[in-house]
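Notebook B, p. 112. Complex prediction, attempt 2.
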Amino acid sequence: MNFRKITAASAAVLALAVTATACGSDDKDSGSSGGGDKVKVGIKFDQPGLGLKKPDGSYAGFDVDVAKYVAKELGYDEKNIEFKETPSADRENALQRGDVDYIVASYSITDERKAKVDFAGPYLLAHQDLLIRADDNIAKGADLNGKKLCSVTGSTSAQNVKKSIAPKAQLRKYGTYSECLDGLTSGAVDAVTTDDSILAGYASQDQYKGKVKLAGLKLSNENYGIGVKKGDTKMTDKINKALEKMASDGAWEKAVKDNFGPANYKNEPAPKIGNIVK
Amino acid sequence: MEAREIVFDFLEGYDVLAAFWVTVKLTLFSAIGSLVWGTLLAGMRVSPVPLMRGFGTFYVNTVRNIPLTVIIVFSSLGLADVFGMTLGASDDFDALSFRLSILGLSAYTAAFVCEALRSGINTVPMGQAEAARALGLSFTQVLRMIVLPQAFRAVIVPLANVLIALTKNTTVAAAIGVGEAALLMKEMIENEAATVLIAFIFALGFVVLTLPMGLILGWLGKRLAVKR
Amino acid sequence: MSSVLYDTPGPRAKQRNILYTVAFVVLLGLLLWWVYQQMDDAGQMAWAKWKPFTLSTTWTTYLLPGLGETLKAAALAMVISLPLGALFGIARLSDHRWVRVPAGVIVEFFRSIPVLLMMVFANQVYVQSTDLSSETRPLYAVVTGLVLYNASVLAEIVRAGILSLPKGQSEASHAIGLRKSQTMTSILLPQAVTVMLPAIVSQLVVIVKDTALGGAMLNFTDLLNARKTEAAFYANVIPSFVVVGLIYILLNLALTTFAGWLERRLRRSKRGTGTVLSAEDVEDLNSTDTGAVVGAGAGAGGPADDVGKR
């Protein structure tokens, strides 16, 4: 055994350790550097039309537009917005521990969630709907019996259909809606179900334009709200004011057109603040 | 009795045993599938045809270096949707996911089975076969009477290790929503307060599944080992 | 060439082999053609679905940051589990029963549990009782799960590495009057490190592969998860899987090749004892069978895989 070799080996291990810890501490820095004049906003990164990370690293979608408008009204410059990914399962948690200041991520207002977080808005009234192939027709929910229905793991939309609308529908669950869309265009499934706003986002993507369409069923009401930390009424009020202004000055209408336009999506008018449609 | 009810009331509404039964079924079917496919691969890897050897090596090196998660998710997406593989379960998606995950697990585990078998064959010293040929035994006789009996014994322990690894790997099927132990644990742990206790129960379940395998097959392997 | 299974082929066997080769090529070709046709029919071969991977932004925005997270988790897991593994590995070799037995129980327990279970558990514990932000928590959970599992595997590697050294090493060191701890730290461990290096690099492959579990189940933003965001923008689910799969293969193949090179080099080296723990030993250690360290004591004899080497 040669001493030089041991030194070389331990140096390699040490180098690995140093780089790794360097990475680790980098991470911590970026984590704690928030706050101050920055605003941290939770959105989705993988939902076309609502919140999508673009190749240039910027974000696009209706939720993003709303988030930006609200941030501007709260007095933040656009470049001071720090977007963070908040997966559905993590939303309450992220708000409770203050990882984000508010969340605009197709976040339906429900009583169960209201026990944990506060909501501003609603800012959009969406409905559970179906996305089907362009040459298909599904006129009512019961037509789904015997058809193959796609949804994502952890979503309740599919269970709703199965429970009350079409008990004989077959449920296929994927990790993301993109995968459902692939199945829809290839014929592996007959319909994708979730909120019409999410579906419209996919239908507007270039890759799916003309191949799929919304069935136009209103299977449920989803009131999208902006999630705020429980008890932060000051923030809630400010966001509500911003949303009111957004609806009145035409920015809301424009954002809907920009993001859902190509899907032939018949949106509901801008909801009144605090008016939750059951 | 009362105390037990209080301690274990988080088990209510969850069928832990059924989830572990799915784990066992996944293990069993994938073990059979991977044994068949792995044997074929091993046959290719030791065959006199260079191209087959090349294919066997390529398969093993490729599959061993992809995360099982990627293979399982890809079987679900790629095989079912693009290749229309419904495996006789086109109307029942739960059964489809179950069967697809068996396919993925088998394809992955086969690479390890192949390597275990190959190393087993390689433990037989060249001299054994040479001596047998010198005695005038035919190819099939050499294989049947000299090589395979020795190779088979040497292969028990490595194969047992592959089986144990497979048992643990079945949890990856949770990634495509197969209702086996890991998926149930994730659901329970997120909804119930007794985090540590739930985790311990599931961990114990896997210990109970894998420990006997290791002990019994390890004992058998040692007993049958060819002393050299 | 010849092997234990067959002799050097004669003229008839050569002809037969050519026949087999042709049949195999035809079968393989048919399979590949069928795969291509099916992909084409499903529109998966469309250039629009593959073109994104020729754009640099696809890599810089989606895939490379994901790959970075994957590597970070793997490196952290390895660096943390190495000393832990050494500790438990040495503890299992202790002369004292009260050290040896508990260490053995802990190591065997964690080796027999799926790593996914540990990740899910760690994630939940962090949600309930720590102040980790929801951004960094998945990384911590993944690393914790990997450390718990791999420290126990590395413990076995360390143990096997020390056991693989010739007995004369410790005997000689006792003879010159070194104490047990001195024997371990200045004689056995330094040599064992060299013996173990290839096995440790091979274990890194296992770690890299297991990070993908966090991406699929815990929202860890690793390579697999980055694929999801990429596919949401370009709507190319299947192609993105193929590309990400290729990245994993190349990365792990590089590690495996490095481990193999290291192993050969160490085996050749005349200065060491000639014992090396190889990649194959690591595979056995990733299951639970107690004490089944095949080939660890193989000594200066080469690896077992000399089919057709003759």
